[in-house]
Amino acid sequence: ISGYSLVVQARDSGTPPLSSSVTVNVDISDVNDNSPVFTPANYTAVIQENKPVGTSILQLVVTDKDSFHNGPPFTFTILTGNEEEEFTLDPHGVLRSAVIFKHMVSTEYVLCVQAKDSGRPQQVSHTYVQVKVIEESIHKPTAIPLEIFIVTMEDDFPGGVIGKIHATDQDVYDVLTYTLRSEQKSLFKVNSHDGKIIALGGLDNGKYVLNVSVSDGRFQVPIDVVVHVEQLLQEMLQNTVTIRFENVSPEDFVGLHMHGFRRTLRNAVLSQKQDSLHIISIQPVAGSGQLDMLFAVQMHSGGFYKPAYLIQKLTNARRHLENVIRISAILEKNCSGLDCQEQHCEESLSIDSHSLMTYSTARISFVCPRFYRNVRCMC
């Protein structure tokens, strides 16, 4: 407890008694009675041979229960094990290589490291760091090609995470880093540590082929990443049909079923090969395991097929569609649960283009806007 606040009252013996109060603040001064604490108590680290001088090996983590003026900054010193000066330790507790290590020369080093706090008198703690030198990488990284589909309203894409590259390496201790060709960084970014792909705002309609690579420090491997951007037209929203699937998650639909279902759906509803199928959004149905897929079909001439026509086509082809995935319902309107009696049921569909949903799998990522249905009875 760093302090107390007391209210002290003095009261006399007169009639009536009179009193007065005063606040007394008592500050507790900290004494440097806690030593720095390493977390964990001892360390094990690995470095591959032939890594350049200055390679980061380990970050030491130290805490101190004393107040700030008796704790950090800490002073780090290698006490033993560094007689040949193979290592350096910076003021932030980062252990780095000072030589190029060779696995044939030595496979292991044990360092005794001291941390000293800033109090008076200073308190110290020690930890042991075991550094293993392993052979350099012998396996190239492997990465899965990624295809990303982005659906957005016209010129209204807000940007965000659109997918993640999945890469592996058979060398146990390899650390993978991801890079993107510099001239593409005006539209996209790739997180160098985890391979997440970020699209910046304002993407135009079209196809983008990203020049991404993954490196383990020795080998660099290119990754095929293709981004398709489709901008919605307002007219599409007035001619949508919803297919509701049973017991499927968005990620499973995207990763396992979307390509096959899209192909089967095209065969079912397209009257001409030049017609275009547009999957506008997929969205879980709240409180259930169901999934809604919103789509429209554009004619070669530019207009859109009416929902009633598409539903007729879907009804006729439902058996073929269910060879791919189980369908719960085919919806044009969402009025089935609303009793309008003799009134007219009116449904409106709205798209929130700033609330994007990203369904990412190892091979396919689908980014689409959230949609809302408003249903009401009209005279």
UniProtKB/TrEMBL annotation:
CDD domains: Cadherin_repeat. GO terms for biological process: homophilic cell adhesion via plasma membrane adhesion molecules. It comes from the Eukaryota. It is found in: Membrane. The keyword Repeat applies. GO terms for cellular component: cell-cell junction; plasma membrane. It holds the Pfam family Cadherin. InterPro entries: Cadherin-domain_protein (IPR050971), Cadherin-like_dom (IPR002126), Cadherin-like_sf (IPR015919), Cadherin_CS (IPR020894). Keywords: Calcium, Cell adhesion, Membrane, Repeat, Transmembrane, Transmembrane helix. PROSITE patterns: CADHERIN_1, CADHERIN_2. Residues 4-38, 39-143, 154-245 form the Cadherin domain. One of its GO terms (molecular function) is calcium ion binding. Its main location: membrane. The keyword Signal does not apply. This is FAT3 protein. The lineage of its organism: Eukaryota, Metazoa, Chordata, Craniata, Vertebrata.
